[in-house]
Design goal:
This protein is α/β, with parallel strands linked by helices and 158 residues long. The protein has one domain: Response regulator (Rossmann fold). It contains 7 helices and 4 strands. A 4-stranded parallel beta sheet has the order 2-1-3-4, sandwiched between helices. β1, α1 and β2 form a beta-alpha-beta unit. α1 packs across α7 and α2 crosses α7. The protein is globular. The N and C termini lie close together (10 Å).
């Protein structure tokens, strides 16, 4: 299985989600699952994740081996699941889809949150340009949803 996490610039939310998912999947003992990330824009291609994404993430035990990439139609074709951070990312990623099956692969990460039944699907806000606390909250949201993604994989729901 190939999972891609996608945000706008691929320097804050999607590399954080990639790092969290990689670790959660490994801890769950799930094999043959690759996780990568990309952004819908090309502003940060080749760049390391944002300084606070790395700083907060490393304090939580995550690592960041990839650099910024732009999401493409080829990525959508090769992925089994594309997890986007907000509705704008959802629209941008689905716009690249050639088929309904490809469009169906693109889902909001918030669909997998533990409180989705009561809170609805909550977007992961972009912390870029905001204080450290926003990055910490981003990780709380992503970690919760990542646990839901792992459960969905185990249950065969994705």
């Amino acid at each position: 299985m190939r999972i891609m996490t996608v945000c706008l610039g691929n320097i804050c939310r999607s590399p954080a989600a990639e790092a969290v998912l990689r670790r959660r999947i490994a801890e769950a003992g799930l094999d043959d699952i690759a996780v990568t990330s990309a952004g819908t824009a090309d502003d940060h291609v080749g760049e390391q994740p944002h300084e606070l994404t790395r700083e907060v993430g490393e304090e939580l035990g995550y690592d960041f081996p990839t650099v910024g990439a732009q999401f493409s139609a080829q990525d959508l074709e090769g992925a089994d699941l594309v997890l986007v951070m907000d509705r704008m990312n959802l629209e941008d990623a689905r716009r690249l889809a050639a088929t309904d099956a490809q469009r169906a692969k693109v889902r909001l990460l918030g669909e997998f949150a533990s409180d989705v039944d009561t809170a609805g699907v909550v977007e992961v806000p972009d912390p870029w340009g905001r204080p450290r606390g926003q990055f910490e909250e981003m990780y709380r949201q992503i970690e919760d949803a990542a646990d839901g993604v792992v459960a969905a994989i185990r249950d065969g729901r994705v």
